[in-house]
Amino acid sequence: MKKLTLITALMMISLAGKLRAQSYVAKQMAKSKTDQTFNANEGLINIKDYVVLKEGRMILELSDLHDYESFRNLDSILVGFRNDIAFYKDSLQANATGHVRIDYVINSEYSFKKIRFKKYNADGNIFMNQDGEISKLKFEQDTVRIVIQKSKPGIARRKNAPCMIPYTIQATFLIGNYYDIDKILADKVLNHIVDTLEKGSQSKRARKNIYSNPISVVYNPYYSGRYGFQRYDWLIDNEYDTYRFKHKSRFVSVNANLGAGLVRNTVTPTGDAGIQYNDYARGEDMDFLRVFVSPYYFFSKNEGGQNVVNYNWFVNVDIGSVYDANMNRWLGKKCSFGIGYLVYQKGGYFTNNTFKVFTDLQVMPRFNIVPEIIFTDNFKQIFPGFTIKLF
Q: Helical H runs in the chain?
């Protein structure tokens, strides 16, 4: 029985990682081969840089700090791009008032490049009347995306050679017209921009593990004030939401819940109250660390036949996430794993040193289920518990 219970506990602890990994794999498998070729894998992007240019803006999406090396000669890459699409110039200009997206894929293992053109018609015809002369206007921006396909070693056990993991990085230019790439090249700022981004992204925290400490940078190379270069220790969706995310990134809250617990064959009223540290540093998910106390109330009668309340207090610590979007990960939008220790004992089923491990799953708003495994009497007794929380 003890062995089975321990195995169950280990399965509960590992279930979160497995479900998130399965969701991630399923999401990638659902993508078409074309999407996988011309778009970076979002799950492997840990650096996002937003750069203001005289002609539009640039977005760099990288997997780690070493990937800056691939864009160190970005101006040379754009010269090759410009030369390779010259043959299609007439076809592109046929869509004068619409907009176009051009994807340009480079892989050092192959001598050829993959190029994709996607044309979009204008949302109606837009004209400008100036002194009686009528001319059509183009409002939508063109998109030029430079995609570099790479690979890096994965994690190997012992002395086994690690397998190579393919991934992509990309530089996206959002500009008025695709041929404005010539103006960007003439400005001769790209190499300086990449060098500045690389130096500004270096930190002890990022170098230690960029995969768990992603970063974003918003950079205006033409502005010398204090806000010309802003760095954030999390991924941002765009450069305009940085202040909103920054103010809400980390905060402490106090919360409490009421509910009922099942310990062996006894139903007991319970509740908890604690303090919670919240962290938005990962972007759309909020991670939290919570320290709280929770009592179990057992009712019995003394020798005189009077009702007696025996209460037992646990101090608990749990860690988890609140999901901005469910993504088929859990029953609800919140889950956590934790441990507890009995600090005050009076009656009931608990004796000597008592611990518990639990997972807290949200089934629906204001309704959580908490499966538990309780170890009491110095680990000599092990039995399951179950709590329902309302808040």
A: 2-29, 33-38, 74-85, 89-93, 181-187, 190-201, 204-208, 242-247
CA 80/CA 91 separation, integer angstroms:
19
Question: Which residue bears the tokens 């602890």?
Answer: 13
The answer to whether 312 and 299 are in contact (CB under 8 A) is no
pLDDT tens for 193-249 read 999 999 988 877 667 777 777 889 999 998 877 678 988 888 888 877 655 444 456
Supply 358's token pair: 């639990």
- 386 burial type by CB count under 10 A (0-12 exposed, 13-18 middle, 19+ buried): middle
- The CATH code for residues 2-21+250-390 is 2.40.160
- The alpha carbon torsion through 233, 239, 243, 245 (nearest 10 deg) reads -50
The three-state DSSP-derived secondary structure of 30-50 is: CCCHHHHHHCCCHHHCCEEEE
Does residue 147 carry a pLDDT above 50?
yes
Q: Where are the domains of the chain?
A: 2-21+250-390, 36-246
For residues 324-352, average pLDDT: 76
Place of tokens 């869509």: 95
Residues 2, 380: Cα–Cα separation, whole Å: 9
Whole-structure pTM value = 0.56
Paired with 49 in beta bridges are: 60, 217
**DSSP secondary structure, 156-201, as one string:** --TTSPPPEEEEEEEEEEEESSGGGHHHHHHHT-HHHHHHHHHHHH
pLDDT tens digits, 254-274:
989 898 988 888 888 888 999
pLDDT band of residue 74 (cuts 50, 70, 90) is very high
CA distance 253 to 256: 10
